[in-house]
Request: fold
Amino acid sequence: MQIRVGTGTDVHELVAGHRLVIGGVEIDHPMGLKGHSDADVLLHAVCDALLGAAGLGDIGEHFPDTDSAYKGMDSTRFLYICKDKIQEKGFMVANLDCTIFAQAPKMSPHKKAMAACIADVLELSPDCVNIKATTTEHLGFIGRKQGIAAQATVLLYKHKS
Ligand SMILES: Nc1ccn([C@@H]2O[C@H](COP(=O)(O)O)[C@@H](O)[C@H]2O)c(=O)n1
Ligand SMILES: C[C@@]1(CO)OP(=O)(O)OP(=O)(O)OC[C@H]1O
Reply:
């Protein structure tokens, strides 16, 4: 058995006039995340963790923000494609552990739906996807509600043939 660990980190600016989509879940909030795609900071961190574990670089290499094809893209599409890329290399996902850094809004009411969305795309049991959230105690750009960050750690495995 071969096992591989990967980590992913992403940050997006929080601004008025944008939707707030995190972990594939749209959250009702006066501000949203700005990006080339739907700016789903958590799914981007998960994509980077998957790509990293498989030795496949990062999200920007696969989906450049200079490509108009990805403008406004639903980030679950990126996640489906990343899943295919790691499966082509023979890897399966064992589990994911993620953290969202946001002063507001509260993520607790949405964490189960986020885990279910990620598990659905990756064809995993929801209990293999753990979502955590933390404020930064009003410190820094996250504490000032200027942005939201996310980190993900993933374990991949494959049976040696
Ligand atoms: N955006 C957030 C931030 C935090 N939570 C939940 O609150 C707990 C306490 O947060 P601290 O930053 O004070 O440690 C945290 O463990 C989360 O359960 C949240 O839901 N949404
Ligand atoms: C996803 C991509 C592509 O639409 O754009 P953004 O939505 O801006 O997100 P980012 O986290 O900067 O990741 C890489 C980009 O190539």
